[in-house]
Amino acid sequence: MTENGIEQVYRAEYGRAVAVLVGHFGDIDLAEEAVQEAFAAALPRWAEDGVPPSPAGWIITTARNRAVDRLRRESTRSGREAAAVREWAAGVAVSAESEALAGGGATGKRVEDMADDQLRLIFTCCHPALAPAARVALTLRLLGGLTTGEIARAFLVPEATMGQRLSRAKGKIRDARIPYRVPRDEDLPDRLGAVLAVLYLIFNEGYAASSGPGLTRDDLAGEAIRLTRLLVALMPDEPEARGLLALMLLIEARRPARATAEGDLVLLADQDRTLWNRDHITEGQALLRDCLRRGRPGTYQLQATINAVHADAATAAATDWPQILQIYDHLTAVAGGPVVALHRAVAVAEVHGPALALAVVDGLEGLERHHVWHTVRADLLRRLGRKEAAVAAYGKAAELTANAAERRYLEWRAAG
Questions:
Q1: Which element (helix H / strand E) includes 309?
Q2: CA 169 to CA 171: how far, in whole Å?
Q3: Quick one: pLDDT at residue 145?
Q4: Burial 81-113 (b: 16+ CB within 10 A, else e)
Q5: Radius of gyration of the chain from Cα atoms?
Q6: Where does the RNA polymerase sigma factor 70 region 4 type domain lie (predicted)?
Q7: 406 has pLDDT over 80
C-alpha cells in the first residue's frame, strides 16, 4: 500500500481508533500515541503483506495492544488503566493478525459501540469548560486526525503554540475530570449546540479564511463536512445536525465560482452559476426537506433554507429576495443578534432599497471592528451615490480584514 493510501485510511479511521481507545483506557494521550504507533507499523507491514480485510480493525487492535504493552511497562500507573492491563493480561486481548484476517471486530465491540465511542469523544472535545479555540483544535486533532502542524498552519499560529493549546485542553479534560460521555437528555440541546458551533466554525474558516493569502482553505471545509456527516450518522434524529450539513453543502457548492483563476474574490451576484456543484445542491436540498418535515426548525435549518433559495435561482436577478427576507425575519425571531441583522439588511436592500437597509446597518451596535459590517455599509453607500463615504467604508473594511484576497477586492472597490 502506498503512503497516499495509508493517509486515506488515516483520515478516515484515526478518529474512530482514538475514540475506541479512549473508551478503553480513559487516557487521551495514551490513545493518541498508540494509534500513531499503529499507523507507523502499518506502512511497512501493509506494503509487504498487502492491506488486511479490515484496515480499521487492524489499526485499532494493534493500537490497543501497543497501549497495553506501554501500561505494563509503566508499573506506577493505577486505577482504571491498571484494571485494563489486568483484563488484557488475563487473556482478553487477541492478536492483531488473527482479528485483521478475520476482518471482524477489532476490539470485540459492536459497530454501535464504536459509534458511541466517537459520539462521546465529540462531546468531550466540545465541552463548554474548554475555551472555544481549544475545542476547535482538539476536534480537528482527535476526530479529524490533523497533525498539530496542519492545525497550526490552518490558523496561522506557530506549531509550538498550537501544541501548547492542545496540551492544555487535554490537561483540562484530565484535571477537571470532564466526563467522557454523551450528555443527559435534558442537557443535550445546549451541548449539541456547542458541537455544531465548533463544526460550523471550522467550516467557515475553510470556506472564507479569516486571514492568510488565499480566499479559502479547502482542507478545513472538507474536514468540517466530513465530521458533520459523521455526527449526522451518529445522531440521525437531530434535525439541526442535518440542517448544518445541508447548510455546509449548499454553501460549499458555490466554491468553484467564488474566485477567479488568479484567486480574486467573485461576489455571489457575479458568479457563473453553471460552475456550482449540483451534486452538493441536490444533497443539501434533500437533507433540508427531511429536516423541515420534522417540524423542529432551528438556526442552521433556516440558514440552509436561505441558501437553498439562492441555489434555486438560475441567475442573480431571479433570486426570490422577498422569500429570503421572510426567512430572515423567522431567523431573527429564533436567534436574533447583530450578525443576523446585518445579513438581513442585505435582503432588505434588495426588497425595500438601500436607504432603508443603511438605516438598519447604522443602527447596529458592536460590529464596528468587523470588516463585513463596513463592507455591507460601503456597498449600500455606493448604491446611494454617496461616493466619498463609500470609499472611506471600503478602505476601513480593507484595513480590518486579514485575508489578502478580500483586501484586494475591497481596495479595488475603493479605487473604482
A1: helix 299-312
A2: 5
A3: 83
A4: beebbeebeeeebbebeebbeeeebbbebeeee
A5: 24
A6: 122-172
A7: yes
